[in-house]
Design brief:
- The protein has helices at residues 4-13, 52-72, 91-97, 139-147; strands at 18-27, 34-42, 98-101, 104-112, 115-124, 128-134.
- It is α+β, with helices and mostly antiparallel strands.
- The protein has one domain (4-147).
- It has a six-stranded antiparallel beta sheet.
- Helix 1 packs across helix 2 (52-72).
Length: 159
Amino acid sequence: MDTKAGHKLVETGALINFEVTKQDIQPTFDGENLHIKIDLQMVDEDKNPTEEDVEWGAFGFIFVLAVLSFDDARARGISDIDFEDNDQFTVADLFDCLEFAGGTLKFYADYIRGRCLKTGITVCKDGSVSIFTTNRGKALVHWLDRLKGKKMLQAVKVK
């Protein structure tokens, strides 16, 4: 499988600077899972809102978030029959989940090959971004931390 386009999208998407403008974490109706919605603003190196980055980075930014969502996703219920442990999110998957409507670029993935993504991303032309996940715990917060370059906690052996 040719992965050159995917690598280019990841490279581009990882260059996007952003600031979190709003975060909302709510329990789902069952009380056991979470619905998270985070709003972002694409910003330049001086933390000023930018629209220019949308033109060159929107597809890559969505792709990076979708890759992180796919990588963290697991099977739920009977979807485990389609789940493959070493599967990868592809550019074709991205385009299957994309829509351009009302001047915004929208991504939504429910289940892809047995993985429960339940992830939605909307990028507006002014550089504002809205991301939501359902039944994914606080994974979205961790993806954004990774994109910001924050080190994740790692298990250490205690002697």
